[in-house]
Amino acid sequence: MSDILDALRAYPDVLRACGVIGSVLYVSGFALVQTGRICGNGPIYACNQLTAATLVLTSLIGAFNLGAFIIQIGFLFFGSIGLYRKLRMRRLGLYPAGTGVIRSMSNAPNGPVPRDDWLGTSDLERRPPARERGRPVRRAPVRAAPAP
Asked: For the chain: N or C, fewer Cβ within 10 A?
């Protein structure tokens, strides 16, 4: 095992490139989720995070950092659990609609109309009402913004 690590340390530029690519994957995955291009609950995002964590962890061979190592191990561990869970749910047919690539609906004939197979990423409307002490809890009313 130490021979493999020594061989990898002989190429610090490759290790540095792995770290940079991993960082780019982290940031681009976050940007895709925040801009609504992919769903944060989908397997695409989980695979992106696992790949980024593996690349950054590989880069730590050249310059070890305990804090970064613990973070990457956490990403790998919990990301693997999440990906396994998502793939298992998909195989069992329990996977909710709208947890993949979010397709643009701007070119729809009558404006943006959601299709049945891409309902979005929120299941808030389909959830049963919350209960507190056995009684349903009412949601707070949504108020319109004041007119300028």
From this structure: C
84-96 tens-digit pLDDT? 988 888 888 776 6
Residue 82 and residue 84: Cα distance in Å, rounded?
A: 5
Check: CB of residue 56 under 8 Å from CB of residue 19. yes
Q: What is the pLDDT of residues 112-132, one digit of tens each?
A: 444 444 444 455 555 666 666
Distance CA 46, CA 121 (A): 15
Instruction: Give the separation between CA 28 and CA 33, rounded to whole angstroms.
Output: 9
Please tell me the pTM assigned to this model: 0.64
3 state SS of 1: coil
Around Cβ 3, how many Cβ atoms within 10 Å?
7
